[in-house]
Design goal:
The complex is a heterodimer of chains A (240) and B (253). Chain A is α/β, with parallel strands linked by helices and 240 residues long. Helices cover 38% and strands 25% of the residues of chain A. Chain A contains 9 helices and 10 strands. Chain A has helices at residues 40-47, 72-76, 94-104, 110-123, 139-151, 169-184, 196-202, 220-225, 230-239, and strands spanning 2-11, 14-24, 29-33, 55-60, 63-64, 79-82, 157-161, 188-192, 205-210, 213-218. A 6-stranded mixed β-sheet of chain A has the order 6-7-8-3-9-10, sandwiched between helices. A 4-stranded antiparallel β-sheet of chain A has the order 2-1-4-5, with helices on one face. In chain A, a hairpin with a 2-residue loop joins strand 1 and strand 2 (14-24). Chain A starts with a strand and ends with a helix. Chain B is mainly α. Helix content of chain B is 81%, strand content 0%. Chain B is built from 10 helices and no strands. Chain B is elongated, with a radius of gyration of 24 Å. Classes of the chains: A alpha/beta (240), B mainly alpha (253). At the A-B interface, helix 2, strand 6, helix 3 and helix 5 of A face helix 7 and helix 8 of B. Magnesium ion binds next to helix 1 of chain A.
């Protein structure tokens, strides 16, 4: 579904992604772990071109998105993204946060979008917040709305960049539950997280990144139960 | 009227009391020959020039800010050479305007570039507008840069194009943030209209000058004009305050 070939990215002369090749298959639940600064966010953000790769190609559903002639907006409509800091639009109600993109991109009429949004809000138990503003919500509620907002575009894949890292501990569960439900519905997901429990339970593949490279990957059992790379062992000994 | 005629000779003789002197000078400055009409006309011109300069300033400011941010936000490797050129022009404009005194700009516009024009108010408004545009551009650019880049990223990641992201997400938030600075710029503009007198603009200060040119009494017309400016600024500051509070409330409903 997403094919990454020889992806490199540098900021100035700082090489952050070092010749990464990887493939995300339909239905995959890929969890990316690794120490801070290892390039996890940059890799994830490259997948929908929020970061412009310095070298290499990324192909999504047969379309080479790194090609300068590709309509990147059309590609992004099919890739949902959830950020660490939610990034809800504070100047709009929750309902408008969710319906803005589907309506403006011509995916749905306002009435259709409203209906779809309410349905999604019910799924995450926040339908009574439709007319509230983001500032009136807790962190956990904001992140659930952010997930709903991305889902409203009917994406084929969802990218999560540390979705629970900015949350108070008691709110982590509610967000992870929504993500687990999404996973069991068959959504293709790429998740950067420090929640090792979630990685083990939901991930079908764990990628360990360090120094801009994927140093090790495999099933949760293999990566957590029988890590090979010394850097991975060192990392796991610190986080587990 | 009768009092004025009665007390006026006393002033010349030097035997007038303070009150009598005050009354006569006040009368000369504001009432004799219906001079208050000149101040009114002056205020009208001041407001008109301010409004025209404001319109030009905002138009130019928005345009320059848009060009400069669009230029800075281009995807690296996909730089548009025309945009680069226009951006350079904008940079020169902002540098020149902010780097030279308003008064010198007025003199150059009035006596060099538009030396044959007799529409002094218009030339003044144009100069003030061009001047204000440079500051407004920097205010807007600052507001756009201060906004969390995550906001635009969220918009783009949903598949919204650049224009929609600006229109629905970035600009409304940036506008609210820069409104106090814009209001401040407007107040400065209002007061700076007084400078167009040097190229023959007929606003409030011109009215005062015309009057003390005949009465040879400067204090009353000048203090009067100062009071009028102060009053205008207080009124507009108050209105701006209301607008700001309104906008802030809409975020916290
Ligand atoms: N926009 C940027 N400009 C310069 N350096 C950046 C930028 N974004 C990330 N970096 C650098 O790239 C490296 C990897 O960052 P990131 O992908 O955010 O790591 P992670 O998400 O694994 O913590 C870090 O050293 C970071 O400082
Ligand atoms: Mg990160």
């Amino acid at each position: 579904m997403i094919d990454v070939k020889h992806l490199s990215k540098s900021f100035g002369d700082h090489l952050v992604l070092d010749d990464i090749s990887e493939h995300i298959y339909p239905g995959d639940k890929v969890v990316i772990i690794g120490p801070s600064g290892s390039g996890k966010s940059t890799f994830l953000r490259s997948l929908n071109l929020l970061e412009e790769p310095s070298a290499g190609t990324i192909t999504f559903d047969g379309v080479e998105i790194t090609d300068a002639n590709t309509d990147i907006n059309a590609v992004r409509r099919k890739m949902g993204m959830v950020f660490q800091h939610f990034n809800l639009f504070p100047n709009m109600t929750i309902l408008r946060n969710i319906t803005l993109a589907p309506v403006r991109t011509g995916l749905m009429t306002q009435a259709e979008a409203d209906q779809a949004a309410m349905q999604l809000l019910r799924r995450v138990g926040l339908e009574e917040k439709a007319d509230a503003y983001p500032s009136q919500l807790s962190g956990g509620q904001k992140q659930r709305i952010a997930i709903v907002r991305a889902l409203a575009m009917n994406p084929k894949v969802m990218l999560f960049d540390e979705p629970t890292s900015a949350l108070d501990p008691e709110m982590v569960g509610e967000v992870l539950n929504v993500m687990k439900e999404l996973a069991s519905d068959g959504m293709t997901m790429v998740v950067v997280t420090h929640e090792m429990g979630f990685a083990r339970e939901v991930g079908n593949r764990i990628l360990f990144m360090d120094g801009g490279k994927i140093l090790e990957q495999g099933s949760p059992e293999a990566v957590f139960g029988n890590p090979q790379n010394p850097r991975l062992r060192d990392f796991l000994s610190k986080v587990l | 009227m009768e009092l004025y005629e009665a007390w006026k000779p006393l002033l010349r003789e030097g035997s007038a009391t303070f009150l009598q002197e005050f009354y006569v000078k006040f009368y000369q400055a504001f009432i004799e020959g219906d001079r208050w009409i000149q101040y009114f006309k002056g205020v009208g011109t001041t407001l008109l020039v301010t409004a025209m300069a404001l319109a030009i300033g905002i138009l130019l400011g928005v345009l320059v800010a848009m060009i400069r941010t669009a230029h800075d936000q281009q995807r690296p490797g996909k730089r548009n050479p025309i945009l680069g050129l226009v951006n350079a022009v904008c940079k020169v404009y902002v540098t020149v305007i902010r780097g030279t005194p308003m008064m010198v700009q007025l003199l150059i516009m009035g006596f060099v570039i538009f030396s044959s024009s007799r529409n002094y108010n218009m030339v003044g408004a144009l100069t003030l507008g061009i001047n204000s545009g440079a500051y407004v551009a920097e205010i807007i650019r600052g507001g756009l840069m201060a906004l969390d880049p995550g906001q635009a990223e969220a918009g783009r990641s949903l598949g919204l194009n650049y224009a929609d992201t600006m229109r629905f997400i970035v600009i409304p938030q940036a506008f609210k943030a820069i409104l106090p600075s814009l209001g401040n710029e407007f107040i400065i503009l209002l007061k700076d209209t007084s400078l167009i007198t040097v190229i023959g603009g007929k606003e409030l200060v011109y009215a005062a000058q015309a009057i003390y040119g005949r009465t040879y009494e400067q204090m009353f017309p000048l203090i009067g004009v100062a009071c009028i400016y102060l009053l205008l600024v207080i009124i507009f500051s108050w209105l701006l305050g209301i607008l700001e509070r309104r906008l802030r409330q809409s975020d916290r409903r």
